Predict the 3D structure of the following.
Amino acid sequence: MPDTPAAPVARPTPTASGALSPEDGKLVVLARGARARVGAVEGAAVRDQDGRTYAAASVALPSLTLTALQLAVASAVAAGASRLEAAVVVTEASTLDGAGHAAVRDLAADAPVHVAAPDGTVLGTVTQ
């Protein structure tokens, strides 16, 4: 997904193996499933303040382009979420796209955003 100048790419800090909570591990599974279901470039999942989860895949249409994380956040907001506890993006990239990162930060200044490879291996976490 293209980055906008106002939303630079975020580089995740490497995460120790097995460092994810069981709840964040579930987000990895949901994000992988969303990506695989439609063969998308990215899959993402978020958990809101009530523990509800939302998963999405990237969208690339002539008239609409959304990262998976933007769509997962939008789904959470549309369902009434006012805060996010955590997010996961499954992608082949080693960085977190700026637009998705900004969408998460709109609802949570401190929620961890885990970046995982397509096989589910967590590459790192963005906390800022």
